[in-house]
Specification:
about 220 residues; alpha+beta; 3-stranded antiparallel beta sheet; two-stranded antiparallel ribbon; 5 helices; about 20% strand; elongated
């Protein structure tokens, strides 16, 4: 059976290095030469570079993954070191957890917007009322706000009649993450790891190398 994207049980919220170091099972630096991967717990995207948890690397990076070995030891790795040490199993699990983390952010953001639906529509109505009072315009326009959750496909549609001020309504909705006619949750995409031509893990024929940076921005994931 295919793994469910709605299974968030392993995800860990990692906002900074302190969220790693306070975990009881976390070890850095870790000699993982003979270690086997159990799970990829979560991706992270730190504001400042933080050293790779592997003793054979220690290259600072901002984007990586928290992993746990079969010995129940946790450390942080970049994508290159993860594949070098743990092979294709790491690439598959890292991609899956990155997709789950992205989906959870989308659902959390959407639920937050839905919870504030009445408040947001009230603010929009108030802005239009102020515009009407200043311009004296009587021509009505219709605003449709569609909020749909991708988990269930269920949607909520609200219709309000306002006088002409489409630029104002666009600015009002975009300020809370919506477009005027269709809600849109914008989430930063996590690059997928390539699964072909993976290096073999834990073999003497492939000596450890430092993590490399593939992103064009400085101090990015390795």
């Amino acid at each position: 059976m295919a793994a469910s994207l709605d299974d968030f049980s392993l995800l860990v919220d990692l906002k900074g290095p302190s969220d790693l170091t306070r975990r009881p099972a976390y070890r850095s630096p870790l000699d993982a030469t003979d270690s086997k991967l159990a799970e990829v717990l979560a991706p992270y995207d730190f504001a400042e570079p933080y050293p790779c948890g592997l003793a054979s690397c220690r290259q600072p990076h901002q984007h990586g993954f928290l992993v746990v070995t079969v010995d129940k030891v946790e450390t942080n790795v970049g994508k290159d070191c993860g594949r070098r040490i743990f092979g294709e199993d790491f690439a598959i699990k890292a991609n899956l957890q990155a997709a789950r983390a992205s989906r959870k952010r989308q659902l959390d953001t959407l639920q937050g917007v839905l919870a504030r639906k009445k408040e947001l529509l009230g603010r929009i109505s108030e802005l239009y009322g102020r515009k009407n009072a200043r311009s004296g315009s009587n021509g009505p326009t219709v605003l449709n706000v569609n909020l749909t959750t991708s988990r269930t496909g269920a949607g909520i549609k609200e219709q309000r009649r306002f006088t002409h001020a489409q630029q104002r309504i666009r600015a009002s909705l975009e300020s809370v993450g919506l477009s005027p006619y269709q809600s849109e949750i914008r989430v930063k995409k996590t690059p997928q790891l390539q699964l072909n031509a993976a290096p073999h893990a834990n073999t003497a024929a492939h000596p450890p190398t430092h993590c490399t940076t593939t992103s064009p921005s400085p101090a990015t994931g390795h």
